[in-house]
Automatic annotation (TrEMBL):
Localization per Swiss-Prot or TrEMBL: Cytoplasm
Keywords: DNA-binding, Phosphoprotein, Transcription, Transcription regulation
Protein's recorded name: Response regulator
Keyword Glycoprotein belongs to the record: no
Coiled-coil regions listed in the entry: none
Ranges of residues in domain Response regulatory: 3-119
Keyword presence, Cytoplasm: no
Domain of life: Bacteria
Domain HTH luxR-type: 142-207
SMART domains referenced in this protein's UniProt entry, alphabetically: HTH_LUXR, REC
Length: 211
């Protein structure tokens, strides 16, 4: 079963989506939240496989809730489900750590498929969101890409250059392998490369790693 937490401040939306998801044999909505603060608390309490997160909610919005959840639980998989495609919503949500971004205009079965895909390790984005991201990245000079890496990501990139596997990196840094996978995925995304080899080549070309 894929355990899901659904956070949305509209009760009727929660009732409708929860009813459909609960009818699926492989999905179970284990908790609901009607604001961001409640979503953070229940995410850390239940540790669901997937969190469906609305963006505009009372008290604490979905972006701040996403930030707080990821800060305390980096492995969390959060799917934004919202009506907004504004740049000031899309980019902060993804930068906060959201894995996927869906619109409320999506059909119920599409939300269910997004849950399954995200659970399997994929990132699901609406076509409009993908277009926005690609346009933004095209405007960013290539030499600035690595400036987005955190210190931890730089540390993992160095270990990748030494040929270490995810498990070896996890053992050396005393972190979960799932956390390493999240960092590696973030590194590939920020450097706009397809695999670990390309990431290491990028690092050598930009003198991020001593030869």
């Amino acid at each position: 079963m894929i355990n899901v937490l659904f956070a949305d401040d509209h009760e009727m939306v929660r009732i409708g989506v929860t009813a459909y998801l609960s009818s699926q044999l492989d999905i179970d909505v284990v908790a609901e939240a009607d604001d961001g603060g409640d979503a953070v608390q229940k995410a850390l309490e239940h540790r669901p496989d997937i969190i469906l997160m609305d963006l505009v909610m009372k008290d604490m919005d979905g972006i701040e809730a996403t930030k707080q959840i990821i800060k305390q639980w980096p492995e969390a998989k959060i799917i934004i489900v919202t009506s907004f495609l504004d740049d000031e919503k899309v980019y902060p949500a993804l930068e906060a750590g959201a894995t996927s971004y869906m619109l409320k205009t999506s059909k119920a079965n599409e939300i269910a498929e997004a849950i399954r895909a995200t659970f399997a390790g994929q990132s699901i984005l609406e076509p409009e969101v993908t277009g926005k991201i690609m346009n933004k990245m095209r405007q960013k000079p290539i030499e600035e890409l690595h400036e987005q890496l955190t210190e931890r990501e730089k540390e993992i990139l160095l270990l990748m250059s030494e040929g270490k596997t995810n498990q070896e990196i996890a053992d050396e840094l005393y972190i979960a392998m799932k956390t390493v996978k999240v960092h590696v995925s973030n590194i590939l995304g920020k450097l706009q490369v397809q695999d670990r080899t390309q990431a290491v080549i990028y690092a050598f070309k930009h003198d991020l790693i001593d030869t």
